Amino acid sequence: MQFRTSQSARQIEVDTPVHNTSEDGKLFKSVRTVQQIRQLLTINSTVKSIPDYYLDAAPLKEYNPQKQLSKQITFNEVNDEELQRYKAEWHWDVFFEFLFYHMLFLILLGPLVVLVLFKYPGIILLKNMKFFKHSSSFYMQTLLWMGSVLGGLMYFIQDKSVVTMTEIIFMWFAITTRSVVIAAKYATLSTARIKLYKTQELPDEMFSFDLMFQDWFCQSSKVLFLEQYRALRRHEQECTLYKFDFLIEPNIKTSEAIKNTNICFYLEWAMKQQMKQTDPIIEQLYYNGFHIFGYLVNQFQQNNPQSSFYKYLISLSLFYGISPIFIRLKYFMENIPDWFDLIRLLLNFITSLQAFFGSVIVLAIGIYDFKRKFFLLDQCLYMLQAKKVTYSTGKKLIPTINFNNPQTLQAWSIIRSLSFDYGQTYNLRIQGFYSMIFGANIVLIFVSLGLILDLIHIDMFQLMLISEMALILIGFTLYYLYLGASLNEYFDSFQTLLDDVKSIYCDILRMREQYILNNIQPINDVHKIFVYIIKEQIGLDVDNIKEYIELIIEELENNQRQLEYDRRNNPFKLYGVLITLNLLKSVGVGLSTVFSYAIQQRLSNEQK
């Protein structure tokens, strides 16, 4: 194994002061640390300089504003607003406002909603919500409305209906959940963004990026830049410190993949900031954090293709839509419906399929996001491991970081924190939707208890539909909560790993004279690696080595304080409750006890 020895010919660049503080009094001493390192590392390296450059609406380039000039949209203002919108926001007034609009359209009025809302909120917002105007979204929503009217409202008009009330309720529930998903997306937009929707007719690309999960689900190049940038802003991290140095060079294939990772708009943004690091590789020494993170995300996307994901969801939606007909197949064979009833059955099937798919895909994306987080966090664990280990999410893709570079340790803390917090705005939408599903699960639990205690009486058809719904919703929710609890377990894993690395440096600090002056070799292989690198990078001066190791230990302690801060303030919660594996076990035991008691009561009543 060949270790990099060029660190001694390096000067760590800092472009701007670091202001990284928190409410509990922690202070990252990056500037002072770097200044001390400069005194130890005497030989400077050249750094590329970039001329002044002005950003020209970079995050919106893919919208092709030249084609939208007639609409007079202030793209530069939108661009600035996108970059500044780094805090996850939730506006309840916006949520209920847009939920009302979509429920009014999908269940009652359809395209006729224009006659009611043309003055307020106005034609422009109706167009932006795709309530009229030629577009695929308009026709899909109109199809949902037709299914709701013909399959739902006609039930109350006809004396005899082939569609049961249970099916109508389930269809409306699916439409309602879809409306909640859409309203939740609007609720996470900024006030300025909502105002833009109400005052300017926006291009389809902007509507798609803001309200559809496609860019996020596929991790487009724009998302890779914006979500990293926003996470860095949320955590008050300095972008100039977001670069890595490794113990060994990545292989050529990995290095090229990192360099060629498309982080859309990063180059333009970096030039505008007059940053000195714009390439993924700087003088073959540092690897840019934006590209490292983007490379890891792309690897996850390649190993977990969306095609199989969609096939599973479509199959589940087909099952949900066709199961009411399949369960009553014998009835339909004996009572063949007329052509009008067949049309209603078909529309009810299509409506349920479309509405359910639009809802369940959000549930599934929440699980998919957790899988991505686990993959990224495992890669962070790999990067801090000096010995060979294997994690369940995949093999090690990035070499171990250079522990002897305090700046790289801080960059590791940044990418670790970013992996926990990545896509917070999208996560907020998904958690909001799961909160509603959680409420539906509570209703299903009470219905189940009522059925067991013989307080509620339904036929077999209704029982099968309710069981199907309960199985899907409760299954998704339990798995989501389990993944959330597993995410919180990573805090302990990182704390243990940082303690291990810190203990190695403490051992070397205590034994520095024996290792350096007396040239005694450590017995432990990991200690040997660390001592070898320290000698190569710092030299044989014991005082310099002591000072340098103390700086590294100080940076490791900063990492631990940041980790503890994130553990207290940014864990996975639902309704403000910290979700842990022990909590889920307790809830499971409690529900089992309640249902066991209910079954026992039912059996005892039947024996009387």
UniProtKB/TrEMBL annotation:
Keywords: Membrane, Transmembrane, Transmembrane helix
Top-level taxon of the source organism: Eukaryota
TM annotation in the entry: 99-118, 138-157, 169-188, 309-333, 345-368, 433-456, 463-482, 574-599
Coiled-coil residue spans: none
Protein name in UniProt: Transmembrane protein
Source organism of the structure: Paramecium pentaurelia
